[in-house]
Amino acid sequence: MMMEAAAGEATVHGMQAEPAAPDWPRLGQGELDALARELPVLLGASRPLWHSPRPFSAAARVQTAHGEFFVKRHDARVRDVASLEEEHRFLGHLRAQALAVPRVVPGRSGATAIAMAGWTYEVHELAAGVDLYRDAHSWTPVRGAHHARALGRALAQLHLAAAGYQAPARLPRPLLASFDIVGAADLAASLDRFVNARPAVAAYLGASGWRDRMLGALGPAHARLRPLLPALAPCWVHNDWHASNVFWTDRSAQAQVQSVIDFGLSNLGVAVADLATALERNTIAWLELDEQAAAGAGAGGVGSAPLAQALLDGYCGVRPLDSTERQALLPLLALAHVEYALSEVDYFHGVVGNAFNASLAYHKFLLGHVQWFAGRHGREYLAALRRWLRGAGTQTSVPA
Fold this sequence. Notes:
Strand content: 5-15%
Oligomer: single chain
CATH topology of the largest domain: Aminoglycoside 3'-phosphotransferase, Chain: A, domain 2
């Protein structure tokens, strides 16, 4: 199918603070018209009202004769029909539990994921609320303690709603979070399995000595986590909990979360690892590390313990952490981005052929983040959270 927008005519969020050229062409009128043959809600579609700046797919808010809808197009190598259906079944469960998530619109056949001309499409009803963080990068800290506390409460509500959902872990695909390495007792064996199941990751790492380097970087945190793993109950989780993946009640500093979007990384995991990801996404300004270094400042002071404590306060007010989860949270924080960073390598090396971004994902976002937590600023951030966990708990022991 001919696409009506060239890839170079707009920018999207990049892997660093600067905008980047997109990997995928924008959604165009011709493909919306073709898609409407299977999805009648798109009949009479005008040109998209707004194009999402998120980089790994093409998505837009579209006005049609039936109202406004959110249309998303994926390269089939990244998300095929079966993969999207995994996400949609989880969304269906959450809706049945009265969690506010957008409805996925089925086509004439009843399918909610549509394959067409090498792409895979999904159409959602609009989420309820205000898209307050629409233009925020996924590593932009939340705007204040009230929003952080609201995010914590909403994540806890999602975890309660997800309880009882029974589905296996998703199959290996690019751009997918998982708990396969961090959640395994044998770190070396789980690393080997993960890499061997993804030929593009194995090809990128090659004979670089990656195994010893990763075991050295991940080993200390994983050693603290390992004895706790059997007591962590598996459940499906969001895996990308950021202020930009929820809609808000209003634009004020006191706004609450009204609905939840973007379950593209959702998978089988554990609730406390999802909470660690939320802290890592919303309370550490990772993209400022380069700016601090360029300015000659002491790079590393990018973590906000007050925001993290507010998010934890909101979460634990709805779903208190048990003793094991309290002990697991801090080592999980250091390991929060490991598996998704390797999945980004899978995408950049295996799908779009971007060697620079593949290197960023591995060296900076995987190894660099783990090393930050081991450094002075990371240790100070973790120490503040440790104090909060001890103070908020009763007799829970949180290891030093």
